[in-house]
Amino acid sequence: MRRLSRATGPGTWPRGGNIIVISAPSGTGKSTVVKRMVASVAGLGFAISHTTRPPRSGEQNGREYFFTSAARFKRMVAAGDFVEWAKVYGHLYGTTWNQLHHVLEGGKDVVLDIDVQGHAQVRRRLPEALSIFLLPPSFPELARRLRRRHSDPADMIASRLAMARKEISHWSDYDYLIVNDRIPSAVQAAKTVVLAARFRRQNQRGLVGDICRTFGG
Predict the structure, then answer these.
(1) Is the whole model's pTM more than 0.85, yes or no?
(2) Taking the domains of the chain in order of start, what are their residue ranges?
(3) What is the CATH number of domain 14-213?
(4) Whether pLDDT at 1 is above 70
(5) Calpha distance 49→213 (Å, rounded)
């Protein structure tokens, strides 16, 4: 299996090949922001994660997630198939090297919708990746959003809020911070980060090299 690595280097990936990690406490609106951003930015793809949790109503295998058994997931961990993986609320989630490379080989930048545990692993293995931490306007607003979803029992909401208190402390580990007060504003801010990343020096080396050669000398 061909893997991305620091030795591989972003210069060998198609057209820039930026990796953008987005994390947020549950209920912040991360999935909505990511979906709208991917839909509205040309050349931006989404890395679909594997998970052991059962599909929710309306979800399809290979679209929202690759749904798999715990036994198979653990075999994949042992084989080194994941660039990152974590256990979240009793279920396993992970992004494979193959999925990451599949999107990048298609000539796109790639977004990873993962939690703070996954981000820490990506940071170690792919330090050139950019990261965005999406914050709710406040803790009371986060609690209101979770209750408004009507998708979780009270004990699960309490668990998500307790986890949010821990996750929020990791804000300083990220490159960019965006407050999701209003979805359109948060999407626009995230799009700005993605588009600006394409002009990073390391992504412009080929173009600049061609221009410099026209100067001679």
Answers:
(1) yes
(2) 14-213
(3) 3.40.50.300
(4) no
(5) 42
